[in-house]
User: Which sequence fits this backbone?
């Protein structure tokens, strides 16, 4: 499908999802206004300064801002007036009960209802519990009723599946575009919007709104389940004297299992998996179903995030006064996002035990400084080697490429003690042991003492 007219689009929220969506939609010729309540962020973006690290995003934003197709504002009224399509891409963090906190989504729905004067298609891109579209519709309707006006509007669900670190590629060449609608008018708008991203084949999967809302959670839960399953197997592997890496390569050869997403490690973090597992669990309970598996995915993950600390404790006993090097702060490579990152669980446990941390991350040290501020027991270093200087042990938490082949001779000279805890199994245990290191991996029992 080609030859669709350009669309005028408004996006609420300029975080990882809103900003990538805005820039990618502008790139194909649409006129996009991104609106945020964070005035500093909007000012920064308007200067062409991208506040997050995402490969390729700087150039995409700058190019489209310069071309006049992408603008940023805090003016919600003007933003509602701009786009026939209004995307909601604000955060939906966990509340204290584990449910998704919908306050920002409700705020946006109310804003749209407060200002709209003609037809609008309101599309939820944020990850929201099943039934949220009904709430968005009711909130808009209430705001319109309060003004005693009744322009037409539709509500749709269009969950986002991009991965931080590969977000632009994911948006431009999606595996699928899930479109949840309850009428043809809304479906046509969204098909037209995504036509430029569907040139090789139609990736749009049009369905009812509730199925679309559930699809997003289902996808993340399947992935989180794979990780927790492998981490559980790694724990068993340690106890029975097996090597989980050999097990992984053997089970992945079965096409029904496959090699994707079966890496054992130090737990999953990020802004999506942990909160989405909790939120679906909460939805499930609200509907009277006790989700045994969902609770286990989270329980295994929380335990796994403690594994690095426990390994250090098993090795050293008392950690007070020790200095530990940490390689990798972001929850995964190619992002600066530290939300629920395993590095945070590790560092906070080390501080609690009286140890100090020297840390390096290629992109996330600024974020770590923002979160933790200046503290005597945290040195944020400019290089990987600097973070290893005089440490009692070095822990690999995030598998950035730059950590994969360090100069082990130099490392051994720099470190106070040659102890490496490899939270992502990126090194060869036998090689490191031959080089004179004490090596601990995840689920690689040969040489690992039983965890405490
Ligand atoms: N980050 C990801 O990888 C990813 C992937 C897929 C889906 N999602 C989902 O997308 C949503 C957004 O995630 P994110 O990581 O981009 O969040 P984020 O926290 O990075 O950004 C959210 C932005 O929304 C803004 N905001 C809040 N209230 C607003 C309002 N009333 N009007 C305008 N702006 C407002 C905030 O100031 C912030 O800049 C979440 O529901 C998340 O689960 C995230």
Assistant:
């Amino acid at each position: 499908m080609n030859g669709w007219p350009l669309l005028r689009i408004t996006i609420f929220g300029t975080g990882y999802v809103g900003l990538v969506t805005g820039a990618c939609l502008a790139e194909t010729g649409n006129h996009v206004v991104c609106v945020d309540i964070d005035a500093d962020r909007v000012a920064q973006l308007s200067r062409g300064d991208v506040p997050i690290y995402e490969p390729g995003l700087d150039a995409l934003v700058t190019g489209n801002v310069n071309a006049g197709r992408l603008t940023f504002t805090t003016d919600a009224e003007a933003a509602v007036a701009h786009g026939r399509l209004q995307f909601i891409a604000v955060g939906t963090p966990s509340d204290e009960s584990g449910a998704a906190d919908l306050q920002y989504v409700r705020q946006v729905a109310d804003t749209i209802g407060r200002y709209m004067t003609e037809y609008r298609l309101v599309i939820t891109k944020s990850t929201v519990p099943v039934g949220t579209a009904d709430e968005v519709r009711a909130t808009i309707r209430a705001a319109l009723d309060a003004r005693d006006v009744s322009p037409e509007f539709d509500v749709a669900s269009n969950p986002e599946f991009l991965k931080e670190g590969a977000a632009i590629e994911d948006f431009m060449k999606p595996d699928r575009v899930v479109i949840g609608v309850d009428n043809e008018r809304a479906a046509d708008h969204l098909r037209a919007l995504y036509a430029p991203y569907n040139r090789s084949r139609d990736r749009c999967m049009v369905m009812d709104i509730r199925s679309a809302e559930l699809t997003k959670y289902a996808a993340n839960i399947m992935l989180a389940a794979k990780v927790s399953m492998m981490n559980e197997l790694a724990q068993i592997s340690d106890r029975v004297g097996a090597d989980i890496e050999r097990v992984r390569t053997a089970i992945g050869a079965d096409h029904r299992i496959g090699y994707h997403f079966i890496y054992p490690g130090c737990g999953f973090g990020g802004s999506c998996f942990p909160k989405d597992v909790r939120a679906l669990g909460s939805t499930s309970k609200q509907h009277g179903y006790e989700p045994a598996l969902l609770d286990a995915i989270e329980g295994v993950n929380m335990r796994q995030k403690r594994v690095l600390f426990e390994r250090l404790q098993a090795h050293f006993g008392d950690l007070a006064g020790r200095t530990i090097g940490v390689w990798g702060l972001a929850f995964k490579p190619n992002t600066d996002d530290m939300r629920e990152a395993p590095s945070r669980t590790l560092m906070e446990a080390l501080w609690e035990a009286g140890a100090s941390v020297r840390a390096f991350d290629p992109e996330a040290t600024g974020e770590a400084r923002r979160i933790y501020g200046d503290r005597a027991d945290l040195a944020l270093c400019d290089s990987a080697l600097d973070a290893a200087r005089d440490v009692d042990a070095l822990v690999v938490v995030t598998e950035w490429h730059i950590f994969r082949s360090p100069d082990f001779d130099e490392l051994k000279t720099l470190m106070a003690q040659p102890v490496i805890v490899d939270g992502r199994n990126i090194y060869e245990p036998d090689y490191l042991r031959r080089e004179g290191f004490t090596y601990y991996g995840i689920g690689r029992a040969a040489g690992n003492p039983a965890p405490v």
